UniProtKB/TrEMBL annotation:
Binds 2 heme C groups per subunit. It is found in: Periplasm. The keyword Iron applies. GO terms for biological process: anaerobic respiration. Transmembrane segments: none annotated. Heme c 1 binds at residues 64, 78, 81-82. Heme c 2 binds at residues 99, 118, 121-122. This is Periplasmic nitrate reductase, electron transfer subunit. Keywords: Electron transport, Heme, Iron, Metal-binding, Periplasm, Signal, Transport. The lineage of its organism: Bacteria, Pseudomonadati, Pseudomonadota, Gammaproteobacteria, Vibrionales. One of its GO terms (molecular function) is metal ion binding. Component of the periplasmic nitrate reductase NapAB complex composed of NapA and NapB. Electron transfer subunit of the periplasmic nitrate reductase complex NapAB. Receives electrons from the membrane-anchored tetraheme c-type NapC protein and transfers these to NapA subunit, thus allowing electron flow between membrane and periplasm. Essential for periplasmic nitrate reduction with nitrate as the terminal electron acceptor. Residues 1-21 form the signal peptide.
Amino acid sequence: MKKKITFTLLLAALISTMAVAQVTSLRGDQEIGANNEVPNIKTVPKNQDRFALNYVNQPPMVPHAVDGYQVNQSNNACLQCHDVDVYRKTGAPRISPTHFMDRDNKVLTEVSARRYFCLQCHVPQVQTDVLVENEFVPAGKFGQ
């Protein structure tokens, strides 16, 4: 029995070593210290046109800089322009009605806690080079 357990552990170690050997990184075959250049951080323009959506129910990207915006348990700077009561005055898009529903689809008077932290889904948009090549094609009429 002891030999069987030892053999199983050795076999598992061998298989895991083989699996790790096949992993490649985005750096390719470079050593970790070979290229330590940090790419420049892209600046987000203060205001820009919105990007087209690529698929149904995609969270819209933020077309302006959000540096210094506080979004924490006691304050959400996004709601100062996008909340239901103020969006007409500011000209900003209104927050979606789905953000006022709990997980049981019960309509709430305030933004749901699960939708309160906007930057989890809505990210600032910036035009950059593609980091990883892909073959993604927007669905239907999206992305036009």
